[in-house]
Amino acid sequence: MKSQALAAILAALVLGVPLTARSQPAAPASRMSDDPCPPQLPGPPPEMRAAMLKPGAKPSAMPQVSDEQMQAYRKRMAEDRARDFANLCRYKPDNSRVAQGQRPRAVFMGDSITEGWGAGDPTLFAQGVVGRGIGGQTSPQMLLRFYQDVIALHPTVVHIMAGTNDLAANTGPSSPEDYKNNIRAMVDLAQENSIKVILASILPADRFPWRTDLEPADQIRQLNAWLRQFAAERKIVFADYYAEMATPTGATKPALSNDGVHPNTDGYAAMRPIVDAAMQRAVGSR
Fold first, then answer.
1. pTM, entire model
2. Least buried of 5, 17, 145, 158, by fewest C-beta within 10 Å?
3. Who contacts 249 (Cβ-Cβ below 8 Å, separation ≥6)?
4. 223 and 263 belong to one structural domain
5. Do 197 and 143 belong together in one domain?
């Protein structure tokens, strides 16, 4: 299989989607139910996550994926979106456990970059920080699950990182204003519920391995300029990871990512001082 196809699977969506021909458990009948979610399937093989995170790795070093697995993956993604567009089922069990315990210090809402952060920097998520990233998600999907996965957990702070998959049109075409409205809505929800907000920049990328027809660098710069301005207007903390991780052309520094989109462990290490400072500012802000 071409390395591009492998990168497409790993980089686009998956960190949380199993690459296997195993069938999805039958979905419940189409009706309102107290338990609408089928059992969750396991994530990808550990060697795939390790390959994505290993400093200095190249896509060719990642485990190979067969055509059959690629087809099963695409079929699974289509079925999952038709059944549960926002993937509300993903964190329902975890949310129930959090609700019964101590209030989290922070919830990190995002896509695969956020989802992979727990493996890339485990100590961050051992300090009362709860991860709610889902690979491949766009801002409308995050907005749909924002109440369940953030508000209902009553965190002190929410860290919102979204935009990469909007630019890649993972859930279909959208406009910059659509994206901005989804960010505005999540911030409104958080502030209305007395939750501090950290608004993260979109990470740099000059190509998406799963959408090689796109050149997103300029649009990422434009949206990051808006995110910074919006954060200032709303008096919330802006976490600028882009400035630390971007080359002059708008790509991710090669040492910080194995696929040009997702941080490796060195990438997450570069992000750590920024998020630590943002957390201190957010908790101390009024």
1. 0.87
2. 5
3. 206, 217
4. yes
5. yes
- Domain edge (last residue) among 35, 57, 83: 83
Q: In terms of domains, do 79 and 97 share one?
A: no
Count of domains observed in the chain: 2
What confidence tens digit (pLDDT) does each residue in 69-124 have?
767 767 777 777 778 889 999 999 999 998 788 899 999 999 999 999 999 999 99
Residue where a domain stops, chosen among 83, 108, 133: 83
Distances from the Cα of 96 to the Cα of 80, 91, 157, 202, angstroms: 22, 9, 19, 30
- Dump pLDDT digits (tens) for 117-157: 999 999 999 889 999 999 999 999 999 999 999 999 999 99
The answer to whether residues 105 and 231 belong to one domain is yes
The verdict on 174 and 273 lying in the same domain is yes
Same domain? 189 vs 240: yes
SS (H, E, C) the chain: CCHHHHHHHHHHHHCCCCCCCCCCCCCCCCCCCCCCCCCCCCCCCHHHHHHHHCCCCCHHHCCCCCHHHHHHHHHHHHHHHHHCCCCCCCCHHHHHHHHCCCCCCEEEEECHHHHCHHHHCHHHHHCCEEEEECCCCCHHHHHHCHHHHCHHHCCCEEEECCCHHHHCCCCCCCCHHHHHHHHHHHHHHHHHCCCEEEEECCCCCCCECCECCCCCHHHHHHHHHHHHHHHHHCCCEEECCHHHHECCCCCECHHHECCCCCECHHHHHHHHHHHHHHHHHHHHCC
Using CA atoms, how far apart are residues 138 and 145, in angstroms rounded to an integer? 11
Q: Do 47 and 175 share a domain, yes or no?
A: no
Q: Are residues 200 and 58 part of one domain?
A: no
CA distance 90 to 169: 21
Which residues form the domain of 225? 92-284
